[in-house]
């Protein structure tokens, strides 16, 4: 293995990501808490204490900073901030503000996500995103987050993976509650329109708080690859599941690219992954090149000028050497994209911690391992390695 100087632009974001519900624990006012404790779902176990990061966020940030990372993406939990419709918790807003200030004090630039899959129970009970007034309610919540993001936050994500939200809404209408498989079932059209409207309203609210904040949203890129003769089928499959959400980001300051694996498409639709390929703990194909394809497709859809940030990319594995190998392949793809002129402005790994992966703690994505009995954090060798790249600004590249 040889090394090259990383072609990172000035101010390149180098970090790791988390989501509130997946790490905080005891998010009892959210819709997912109800789903986790309901029968008849595909959810294997509830989140309960998760990583107890609501109380241990300082440990998490200390570790990330000590490893060499310069950026940390975390989310604000709407169900905590507005547990009852129209009633905002000053204490919770202060909690998330302390997290912002704590990140800055440790040399970590905070990227704040305002919605990462979960909503308050009262919002779900009203009918969720497609209910009358939902856009205005989300915009009001975003405006209420001003104390959290008004100072020291350069990047805000309004909604994480809206295409997954639309897909899960479609699943729910078919009686299937849980996290969708790679490749994605059919999204719900009404929810697609609703989350796009909510995003546009949220962008306006963020810019009203501070016009200097860089605001965007993140897409779950499935890396649809056409088998010979299936190009038109692939384009038709991809558009409602991905491209419509990329196109909705026109006018934003950046767009988040999130990829893990690929989905091959034949004349009859998605092709099951061959039985002899390497799989991750999520049963996805081990495919480090996914992020490169995702970056290039996103730029193709939205235009080469749009700043791209890899806001999630990683692997669920019990073998940390495979994690290093996966990140090596992925980062080579990022470097190649930059060398080819794509405007890539950051890379944030998923995930900073082993966490609750929407139904189970079994898929270990974390750069940092968590002991579920004691909550002790232990940086894996992959964390040491990946963090060091931020300090050395060198990237492993396989010779040849």
Automatic annotation (TrEMBL):
The keyword Hydrolase applies. Gene3D superfamilies: Glycosidases (3.20.20.80). Its EC number is 3.2.1.-. InterPro entries: GH, Glyco_hydro_1. It is an enzyme of class 3 (hydrolase). Keywords: Glycosidase, Hydrolase. It comes from the Bacteria. The keyword Hydrolase applies. GO terms for molecular function: hydrolase activity, acting on glycosyl bonds. PANTHER family: GALACTOLIPID GALACTOSYLTRANSFERASE SFR2, CHLOROPLASTIC (PTHR10353:SF209), GLYCOSYL HYDROLASE (PTHR10353). Belongs to the glycosyl hydrolase 1 family. This is Glycoside hydrolase family 1 protein. It comes from Streptomyces argenteolus.
């Amino acid at each position: 293995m040889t090394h090259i100087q990383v072609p990172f632009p000035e101010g390149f974001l180098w970090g790791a990501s988390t989501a509130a519900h997946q790490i905080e624990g005891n998010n009892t006012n959210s819709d997912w808490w109800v789903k986790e404790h309901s029968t008849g779902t595909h959810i294997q176990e509830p989140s309960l204490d998760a990583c107890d990061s609501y109380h241990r966020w300082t440990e998490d940030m200390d570790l990330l900073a000590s490893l060499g990372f310069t950026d940390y993406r975390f989310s604000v939990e709407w169900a905590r901030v507005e547990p009852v419709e129209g009633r905002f918790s000053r204490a919770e807003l202060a909690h998330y503000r302390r997290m912002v200030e704590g990140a800055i004090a440790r040399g970590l630039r905070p990227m704040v996500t305002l919605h990462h899959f979960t909503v308050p129970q009262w919002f779900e009970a009203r009918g969720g995103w497609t209910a009358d007034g939902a856009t205005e309610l989300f915009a009001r919540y975003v405006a209420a987050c001003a104390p959290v993001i008004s100072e020291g936050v350069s990047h805000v994500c309004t909604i994480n993976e809206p295409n997954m939200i639309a897909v899960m809404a479609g699943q729910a209408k078919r009686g299937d509650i849980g996290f969708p498989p790679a490749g994605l079932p059919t999204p719900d059209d009404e929810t697609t329109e609703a989350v796009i409207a909510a995003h546009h309203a949220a962008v306006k609210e963020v810019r009203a708080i501070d016009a200097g904040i860089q605001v965007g949203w993140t897409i779950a890129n499935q890396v649809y690859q056409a088998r010979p003769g299936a190009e038109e089928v692939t384009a038709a499959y991809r558009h409602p599941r991905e491209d419509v959400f990329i196109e909705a980001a026109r006018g934003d300051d950046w767009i988040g690219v999130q990829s893990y694996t690929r989905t091959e498409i034949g004349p009859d639709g998605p092709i099951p992954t061959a039985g002899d390929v390497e799989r991750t703990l999520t049963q996805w194909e081990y495919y480090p090149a996914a992020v490169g394809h995702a970056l290039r497709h996103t730029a193709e859809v939205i235009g080469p000028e749009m700043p791209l940030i890899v806001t999630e990319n990683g692997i669920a594995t019990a073998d940390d050497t495979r994690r290093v190998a996966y990140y090596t392949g992925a980062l080579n793809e990022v470097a190649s994209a930059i060398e080819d002129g794509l405007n890539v402005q950051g890379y944030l790994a998923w995930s900073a911690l082993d966490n609750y992966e929407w139904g189970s703690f079994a898929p270990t994505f974390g750069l940092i391992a968590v002991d579920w009995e004691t909550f002790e954090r232990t940086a894996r060798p992959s964390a040491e390695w990946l963090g060091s790249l931020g300090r050395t600004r060198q990237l492993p590249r396989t010779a040849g």
